[in-house]
Amino acid sequence: MHAEERFTAETFPESPEKATLEAKNKFLGFWLFLGGETVLFATLFATFLALRNSNNNGPVTKELFELPLVFFATMLLLVSSLTSVYAIYHMKNFSFRKMQVWLVITVLLGAGFLGLEIYEFNHYVHELKFTMMSSALGSAFYTLVGTHGAHVAFGLLWITTLVIRNSKRGLNLYNAPKFYVASLYWHFIDVVWVFIFTVVYLMGMVG
Question: Would you say 147 and 132 are in contact if contact means Cβ atoms under 8 Å apart?
Answer without folding.
Answer: no
